[in-house]
Amino acid sequence: MDVSADKDALVNEIGRLIAEDHRTNARPWQAYALIVAYDGNMRRFNGFAYDGDGGYAAATPTPEPLGDALDALREATRIHGKAPWNACVVRLVRDTRRLTLEFEYEDPERWDITPQTLDAVAERARPA
Question: What is this structure's pTM?
Answer without folding.
Answer: 0.93
